[in-house]
Backbone:
């Protein structure tokens, strides 16, 4: 009996405290708080989700530029074909053959270059024999390491001025082997001489039209021979004078 009473009293006490507990809990909450603030996740899940915003449309890919002449597509990439300068290529072959002293290679390169020029290549015809002989003359007379390219150009230019002059023979070979003129070409040193690169380069520049003096400069000596045009002093070789022809009327 006692146990039943105790259980009954405990149950009644529990029933009496429930409303009071709920009231106290309601009074303890601040005025600005409610169930929504206490349970934000549940409230957010109850709301209707916002519709997704449309992503901006991608900008259109610009159209590739129109193809130009010489363009071609390789593996999806545009490339351009560049025509080879075969005339220039064979000219380099001639230059290298001259430095090596290979007459056969140089003449073969000259023939190939002439064919390239005939097919529309750019440049002027150059004789390998003229290139080789002129380079050797320049080397024999101005090939020392301490001399300048300007001096070498003037040495070779006198030879070409004589070729163009009515006072001298009209080929490089005849000019340099003319009796009493270029004594150096009759030596054993000249017979075995292979021109250096810088001398071949100066000879090639001259044969392609480059000039440093006027056409009337046809004399070169270690003394004055006619009216002076320019000179190159040198402590080891002495001064070299480049002088004008006495018949200037022939060069006007």
Residues:
């Amino acid at each position: 009996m006692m146990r039943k009473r105790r259980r009954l009293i405990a149950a009644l006490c529990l029933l009496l405290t429930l409303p009071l507990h709920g009231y106290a809990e309601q009074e303890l909450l601040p005025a600005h708080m409610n169930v929504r603030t206490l349970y934000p996740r549940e409230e957010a899940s109850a709301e209707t989700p916002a519709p997704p915003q449309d992503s901006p449309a991608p900008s259109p890919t610009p159209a590739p530029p129109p193809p130009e002449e010489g363009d071609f597509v390789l593996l999806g990439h545009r490339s351009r074909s560049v025509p080879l300068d075969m005339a220039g290529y064979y000219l380099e072959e001639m230059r290298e053959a001259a430095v090596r002293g290979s007459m056969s290679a140089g003449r073969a390169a000259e023939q190939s270059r002439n064919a390239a020029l005939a097919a529309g290549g750019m440049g002027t015809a150059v004789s390998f024999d003229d290139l080789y002989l002129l380079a050797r003359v320049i080397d024999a007379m101005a090939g020392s390491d301490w001399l300048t390219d300007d001096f070498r150009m003037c040495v070779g230019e006198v030879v070409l001025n004589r070729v163009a002059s009515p006072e001298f023979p009209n080929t490089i070979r005849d000019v340099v082997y003319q009796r009493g003129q270029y004594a150096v070409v009759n030596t054993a040193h000249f017979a075995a001489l292979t021109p250096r690169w810088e001398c071949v380069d100066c000879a090639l520049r001259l044969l392609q039209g480059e000039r440093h003096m006027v056409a009337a400069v046809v004399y070169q000596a270690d003394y004055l021979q006619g009216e002076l045009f320019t000179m190159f002093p040198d402590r080891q070789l002495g001064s070299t004078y480049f002088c004008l022809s006495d018949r200037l009327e022939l060069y006007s």
User: Anything to note?
Assistant: DSSP finds ten helices and five strands in the chain. Residues 127-251 form a domain with the Arc Repressor Mutant, subunit A fold (CATH 1.10.10.2520). Residues 19-29, 31-39, 42-46 have pLDDT under 50 and may be disordered. The longest helix spans residues 2-28.
